[in-house]
Write a structure and sequence with these properties.
384 residues, mainly beta, Neuraminidase, four-stranded antiparallel beta sheet, 1% helix
């Protein structure tokens, strides 16, 4: 039994849709629901449990596979051999090679950041989420100058809830989302560890001097916000703020816009319940703990997150927030007004793929990854 959000089906949301293909051709495939005028196209296949996609100049893609492999997909969909230089990962359960992003100045420095489940050193046990920096070689065949710039503390025996989404702010600094490792859920309320936290660091891995707990005795200076469960979606909003979502237990998946020093409640408050049923925590609200911007009951098992800022899909989609669902293989489009969710549209219902990542590319198109042994890189393509 998987110990992340996996509960009964979300009630159907009726949307006007066409039945379209999961292929570069436009032949229909029964059960695939997308908006009118938009087709779902396959860019690449044969990816083994892909977890994240980043974009390279010239139309290439950088894709992580959870087993620990980094690959390059060219503009024609050809998947490369493994990129050399990836450090050893604790692959198993939900762990492995996870998120990857390119630096804002990649075209001049070829720098990337990636996070992974890092095994303990010789003679020790356990694992934690780590963030590494590296330079992608000019031929994109190897990583050079690999350096782990942050390691979650402490390492624990668990293959669950690593979190591991990276967002680079406009100032070049980084946010990293960190899961509470499931069995250590109570750690999410304590500031002497990194479990169930979002951290904010420089590209060299140092905590920022203006972080909310930087001068607080007994608190780790990297912490930005706390009380999180298993955050597997994060993105920079058009407002310049960090937006993220996290898995609840049976229900209570949340979207938050985490503010510095704020407590987001896990495991004290939640809209979910214990696995198998029964109350979790103290209820849904408590003084000093933040309410989610939006939540799902039952769970959709969210992963991946992106804002639509391009005009590729028309004005109705601009400003929408897209969230993928692992459980249902659906893409959720959230319309926002004054920072509030005012409408939710469920897309791609019945496509049979676990959506792991959602990104807007530099070309303005939306790209998706499906998490399976034969995972796919897909593009939402305007036009029938």
């Amino acid at each position: 039994m998987r110990l992340s959000s996996r509960s009964a089906a979300w009630p159907a949301i009726h949307v006007s849709a066409l039945v379209l293909a999961l292929a570069v051709s436009s032949a229909p495939a029964a059960g695939q629901v997308v908006p009118p005028g938009v087709s779902l196209r396959t860019v690449a296949t044969g990816l083994a449990n892909p977890w994240a996609v980043a974009f390279l100049p010239g139309g290439e893609f950088l894709v992580t596979e959870r087993s620990g492999t980094l690959r390059v997909v060219d503009a024609g969909g050809k998947v490369s051999a493994a990129v050399a230089g990836v450090p050893r990962v604790a692959s198993g359960g939900q762990g492995g090679l996870l998120d990857v992003v390119t630096d804002a100045r990649f075209e001049t420095n070829r720098r990337i950041f990636f996070c992974f489940s890092e095994p303990a050193g010789a003679g020790a046990s356990g694992s934690s989420t780590a963030l590494a920096r590296a330079t992608l070689s000019a031929d994109a065949r190897s990583l050079q100058d690999v350096q782990v710039i942050f390691s979650q503390r402490p390492k624990v025996e668990s293959s669950l809830h690593f979190g591991c989404r990276i967002v680079q702010a406009a100032d070049g600094n980084l946010w990293l989302t960190l899961g509470e490792r499931y069995h250590r859920k109570d750690d999410a309320q304590k500031l002497d560890n990194h479990h169930g936290k979002i951290v904010r660091i420089t590209p060299d891995g140092a905590p920022l001097a203006d972080n909310p707990h930087a001068k607080q005795a007994g608190a780790l200076p990297e912490i930005w916000s706390y009380g999180h469960r298993n955050p597997q979606g994060a993105t920079l909003g058009p407002d310049g703020k960090l937006w993220m979502h996290e898995h609840g237990p049976q229900g209570g998946d949340e979207i938050n816009v985490p503010q510095p020093g704020r407590n987001y409640g896990w495991p004290v408050i939640t809209y979910g319940e214990n696995y198998g049923g029964g109350k979790m925590g103290e209820g849904t609200a408590k003084a000093g703990m933040e309410q989610p911007l939006h939540y799902w009951v039952p769970s959709i098992a969210p992963s991946g997150m992106a804002f639509v800022t391009s005009d590729r899909y028309g004005s109705a989609w601009q400003g929408s927030l897209l969230v993928g669902s692992l459980k249902f293989g659906t893409l959720h489009r959230l319309e926002l007004n004054a920072g509030k969710v005012v409408r939710e549209q469920k897309l791609l219902e019945g496509n049979g793929g676990r959506i792991r990542d959602v990104r807007q590319g530099p070309d303005g198109f939306i790209y998706l990854l499906t998490d399976s042994r034969d995972g796919k890189l897909l593009r939402l393509q305007p036009g029938n």
